[in-house]
Protein 1
Amino acid sequence: MSQDVTLPMDIRRIRELLPHRYPFLLVDRVVELDPEARRILAYKNVTGNEGFFQGHFPETPVMPGVLVIEAMAQAGGILTNHLRGGYDREATSYLVKVDAAKFSRMVVPGDRLELDVEIRRVIRKMTFYAGVARVDGKEVACAEILCAESGG
């Protein structure tokens, strides 16, 4: 299990730990990663030129809630793959369940989305995460996320 990490973790290291690529890589930087607490704090810089803003909604752009959840899941994937010592290209994890999702504020261009995710349980090839997303210290969303590994 890998314990060493250089912070902040930049996009190059993030891309080594996740299979996602533009336009679907939704984590820009990792600023905290605590292997003992099994917790990560990462950021997504939300810019006005994100493709989803073209249709959601052009006059009043709002980041889709499902993408906020996906960003939390990706942060969890970075944490899990770091703890495992790297991304195993033969064993990709997929989001399979979201529970207790709540959205309390809109995420708009110019926001820095803070992704605070911890591993709650690991059972065989499934990882259960709890995540909170914040902007300027205020909660915008939270969810319990289950990811399952295929292959490997």
Note: The chain has a mean pLDDT of 95.
Protein 2
Amino acid sequence: MADGHRPGGALVDERGNVVGVVSAKLNASAALAMSGTLPENVNYAVKSSYLLSFLESVPDVASKLKEASVKEKKFEDVVKEAEQAAVLVLVY
């Protein structure tokens, strides 16, 4: 994208569970032209449930998938865990 935004980051809930993967960002200039207002921080994500079957089909990945967390966590801990869990995926 022209603004340097790269889709694909994890969208996590307050417990650190991945609930989606960011797939696109709203074009602010197009929204401004259509609505007359400038939107801020509007992104779109694909639900993680759509990606789970793919991840489970990759043996090296499937063994590393974790069960969903129900434990309450501090925001700072959720951010730290999400940063440590992020990986680059290249598809050819």
Note: The longest helix spans residues 75-85.
Protein 3
Amino acid sequence: MLKKKLVIIFLSLFFFAFQKINAEQIVYIDMEKIMKESKAGKMIIDQISKSNEKNINKFKKIEEDLKAQELDLIGKKNVLSENEFKTKLEKLSKQISEYRTKRQNIIQESNKKRVKASAEFSNQIKPILGDYAAKNNISIIVQKKNIIMGKSELDITSNILKIVNEKISKIKLD
């Protein structure tokens, strides 16, 4: 009888303590919103967009030039000797191949810069999250994208956004 009461008391205390931990120490954050709305995040997005736009314009100009060369060569097909035409066609094909390789390399480099900037941004936010968690007795901070459903009171995004805007002014892209 005494044993049953002790077990019941122990289980009651255990469940009460477990419920309190779960309810108070788990929150979530929308990192995508932080990236899009913070000053530093906007700066990263703006720099990447400008770089991409510059590259796209450069690609269009090269493509137009290559297309003009191709049309010019096709127009001269009947005037040029077969050997001369073949040589110019091979030269143009080589230029097109070099352009595609260069374009692919620039795209890959741009993607690397974007990933590196996002990682740097994330690394700078981690200490802010750690401080916030320590000050507010939070055990776990989860990304919102991994949450199926949660109370809006557990969303700390706006609080963190304010702190990020105060502490992180810019992220440097290479």
Note: The chain has five helices and two strands.
Protein 4
Amino acid sequence: MNASGIINFYGLQPHPEGGYYKQTYRSEVLIDSGALPDSFSGQRPISTAIYFLLPAGNFAAFHRIKSDELWHFYSGVSLHIHVIHQDGFYELLKLGSDIENGQSHQHKVPAGVWFASEPSSTEGFSFVGCTVSPGFDFNDFELATSDQLIAEYPHLEEIVSRLCR
């Protein structure tokens, strides 16, 4: 199946960071705001999950969230996840099925880091899933600007300029 077939089959919608998504799970069990770090405003579900598809030539722009995010590879070409840790260390996570060449079926992106993603190839698509705990809420989502990240991490200007909107 091609990218448009998967988008149509699962009813994926455009995501603000790029690509297409659909929430597939939202726990009915809530974590009280008093049990969460002060950076959270209000209750959160224990966990949420989405399908996420990036067509080749598209990218998910640098953003960060307040929770850990576990990425799962499903099909298509491998996905490159570009991570900027709080100390400025850059890390490339390769999400895919070719474990002999450094890819993994799962990767964790820690809470509070800047990250962006893109298919590893100029053809095809990457179809993946993301599980967030405590559960995702758009109040916890921050989209970066290139000026903001370049000022903080000037040594990463090339990748930041390419993967910000």
Note: The CA atoms of residues 56 and 124 lie 5 Å apart.
